[in-house]
Amino acid sequence: MSNENAQKQIGNIDLVKQLNSAVVYRLIDQHGPISRIQIAEESQLAPASVTKITRQLLERGLIKEVEHQASTGGRRAISIISETRHFHTIGVRLGRHDATVALFDMSGKTLAEAHYPVREKSQQEVERRIIYAIESFIDKNQRRIRELIAISIILPGLVDPEQGIIRYMPHITVDNWPLVKNLKEHFNTPCFIGHDIRSLALAENYFGATRDCEDSILVRIHRGTGAGVIVNNNILLNKRGNLGEIGHIQIDPLGERCHCGNFGCLETIASNSAIEAKVQQQLHQGFPSQLALNNCNIHAICLAANAGDPLATEVIKQVGLYLGKAISIAINLFNPQKVVIAGEITQAKQVLLPTIKSSINTQVLKAFREDLPVVISELNHCSAIGAFALTKRAMLNGVLLQQLLGG
């Protein structure tokens, strides 16, 4: 056998090991307490393989045995569950002006959270700032961290998650920024990176409103408008690493100029700043409203809409109408089981959701819109939970798990 073929074979064996370990761990994590016999049945792996993998996972402390009364009576049965308290991960959400850094255990529970301003404008300065923030956070929470197994970071822009490279960000100039490589070298810890909204959609699937379905679309309205598509419980990504730029569907060709260079993109209408600007413009023109020019942020606008204020209600409805148009296009493309809306605007859900739904009812294939819930996100969209979802995925698909097992 040639050296190249031998290496390929070793590579294949390693991959099979990784995938088999991942299947076993995933079953335990998501369906535990579960017996070894059930794991063998569900995974279609040989009982000897299951025994070997569970022994490795037990020795590493990633799972633990629990006793319970067998349904047939007699001897107490042994089942297995995942161990979530001994392993910790750090999640970072990098925003346009700040970073949220959080400590999670493996169940997704937030144990600590801190916010750091990030006002730097160059890739090198921002990287230094992120490293400083993570170092400060680790230092402050040293006593809580048993074993730090990963650092994950999410951010707006165009990200190549496979290569760990940032290609574009909306507010700073980047040049193929190898942030994962640099963080990995600095902290000597596995690192993962992803787009903030795509990762939020994945977190929603693990811990939030789409736990009960395999296919969903999440749309978030914040500083811009973005979407994450989940298909078969996996975040939809392609070779180029980015899709779901719903905010750049052109809604109004004669509209405002977008930061992307086009005119009338959805996010020139459906973003917090666009909504606030619209209300200010209408107030200047003398439209009657309980809102005042010195108090018309997104929160105040939503409260006013909920109270029946005619101006706030009309603006939210208009946003809902345009959002509904773009979401309808996405539904016709992906046929999800559920649509999730995230962002501060969801505080006015009584006004927003009916407008989105009426758009969907007139623009979506009948078979695709029947029994299609449009719901509000169950997660804090400004938290770092999306970053934790990347670590969770790396455990469930075996990439991080294999590193922990010394593979």
| Helix percentage | 40-55%
How many separate helices?
13
The oligomeric state is single chain
Low-confidence stretches: none
CA-based gyration radius = 24 Å
Task: Provide structural commentary.
With 407 residues, the chain is α/β, with parallel strands linked by helices. It has helices spanning 3-31, 36-43, 47-59, 123-140, 179-187, 196-207, 272-284, 298-306, 310-334, 349-363, 366-369, 385-396, 399-404; strands at 63-69, 76-82, 88-94, 98-105, 110-117, 148-155, 158-160, 165-168, 191-195, 216-221, 225-231, 234-235, 338-342, 374-376. Strands 5-4-3-6-9 form a 5-stranded mixed β-sheet, with helices on both faces. Strands 12-11-10-13-14 form a 5-stranded mixed β-sheet, sandwiched between helices. It is globular and about 75 Å long. The mean pLDDT is 92.
Short structural summary:
The protein has helices spanning 3-31, 36-43, 47-59, 123-140, 179-187, 196-207, 272-284, 298-306, 310-334, 349-363, 366-369, 385-396, 399-404; strands at 63-69, 76-82, 88-94, 98-105, 110-117, 148-155, 158-160, 165-168, 191-195, 216-221, 225-231, 234-235, 338-342, 374-376.
